[in-house]
């Protein structure tokens, strides 16, 4: 595998998100500019028809995350109800039945998708005119209180074109009469609102229903539909997120930052980090920074021998932990793991060391009674736990050992790991990178788990990650990030094998490609 395949997909595009049902449903609702009685992109409706799950809903098939299936299914039902094609009646009926089944699982899930408390009431409001047999308690009193708390954080939903806000990413929560008052000044250079496909589709839909249009928004949606072969990912591009995470995976795998193929990407990340506003977002076209990308980028740059400013990360500090965003309702465990990793590269500063101590204590308190971390950005506990091993080893070995024990206890007999019905190569790669960090720190003596993992990844080397395990509005898959993780785990195993198992293994060569442009 080559670096080209980690940072660029088969279209030559940097920062691709695999298609999913929720955002595709919003694109399916956009009417044709010349004939409002038919969809502009019927292929989006066809994508939904082809991807209805066996249980009647929509969402990721490999894991049952009821919150995300609920949101995806409501959006798909709304899309089919919008066009009222007789052949789709049975599809809607099955979708409504699935909604009733998802209700029973909501209370036991520790996390909800991002913006759930805002998206759910907005979808229910749009579905109300169709008279569907939806559960009357979908938007419970408890959820209404959560919605109110979120609204108190983000304030009035008013647009200042010069000051992008995180809630823009979920702007489809606005009714059409609010959306139509917005103009194309809100669009980025690709023609999207905050890189979000659902938001951009809702905006274009509202314009067309009120006799206006946006050729730039239409071009963006047409482009991402082509990338997804009829479906769309929940945003595009996520080039900073992808670049940062792939480089961080290479760091953890033992590559050198001075490698001639890696060094240019380090230089590019440093440029992004220093560009105003200093720090990192998921994309250059939506400069609302977050602590997660900023902390991970900081660690990568320190690995490369650079000395970036810590100030962009410190502004997210809140008494005993870091927020991911300034108007965030609940903090993320993984974002704080990444902040700890960043702080550990700069412990010569008394302030940074004290923050690291307090973050570590906060992390200790987040372990549940199963000794498990749950995170708001990834459905698999293996993601945050494996990264926590790297951040904690050599700093708090007791907590690191608890993470190692958690990972070891969940290895499948096949040698892989997975939070769904079967192991996945992505989650196995997470576990591998964490256990290798443990081995390097002297916290793992028995290599049998890594040998089994090596067999699992070798046996499944021809596969590409397919499960959507990252949490956004629904579950999604950042293609380059997952491919980069798998590649890094394989390379790390090869290095570990050569050193510990007395077997030679040739590391793959790296090449670099350039991204295509919209």
Name of the top-level CATH class of the largest domain: Mainly Alpha
What value does the average pLDDT take? Answer: 91
Rg estimate, integer Å: 23 Å
Instruction: Please give the order of strands in the largest beta sheet.
Output: 1-2
Task: Give your account of this protein's structure.
With 518 residues, this protein is mainly alpha-helical. The protein has 2 domains: 211 residues, Glycosyltransferase; 262 residues, Glycosyltransferase, CATH 1.50.10.20. Helices cover 50% and strands 2% of the residues. The strands form 2 sheets. A two-stranded antiparallel ribbon has the order 1-2. Helix 19 runs antiparallel to helix 20. The radius of gyration is 23 Å and the shape is globular.
In summary, what is this structure?
With 518 residues, this protein is mostly helical. It contains 21 helices and 4 strands.
